[in-house]
Amino acid sequence: MKFVTLAVFAIVLATALSQSVLAGDITLPAPRKTGGPELFVAIDQRASEGNSNFPGGELSQQDLATLLWAATGHNRDGSKWTVPIAMGRPPYCKVYLTSKDGVFVYDWKKHALKQVSAENVHARIPMQDFAKTSPVHLYIVEDAASLSQFGNTAAEFGPLLAGMMAQNVYL
Question: Are 64 and 18 in contact (CB under 8 A)?
């Protein structure tokens, strides 16, 4: 599968998952769709954190399931998503997760993580020092093969969708 390098959008989650959470393919629990702060409270409290304030701690499968669903969330019958997608088609960006247990791709149809590699790739991914210690990272990547369905009109679809998916995860 060919990926457009420019559309790689990294979201570093400074959270730890237990060894048992990421071992082979993972079926995730249903996402939480209620609770949390109101939208404007979340926007108001959103801020960049310095190296010393970068959050740590454990991320449950429930929280991971909710974050991944928020990124592409098929949330209604038909072609309705948590992010605007051109012509209501399936997402043409994919969400990858890396950890010490390997590389996974989020399967929005099954709401599951599919392991694509058992290799720990963190050492080869350049990033800020404080983020290198985070055992979990999400990457939203444009899928050029999926975008080819739109012909020449799709030049900006991938980066735009990646940004919207990232925004949902942030909120």
Answer: no
Q: Which residues contact 97 (CB under 8 A, 6 or more apart)?
A: 22, 68, 103, 104, 105, 106, 113, 136, 137, 138, 139
Q: What is the pLDDT of residues 3-20, one digit of tens each?
A: 332 223 333 332 333 333
Sites in the chain below the pLDDT cut of 50? 1-22
Pairing of β 80-81 and β 74-76: antiparallel
CA dihedral 143, 2, 135, 129 (to 10 degrees): -110
Residue type, 144: A
Residue where the block lists tokens 């959103």: 46
Question: Do 72 and 107 form a contact (C-beta atoms < 8 A)?
Answer: no
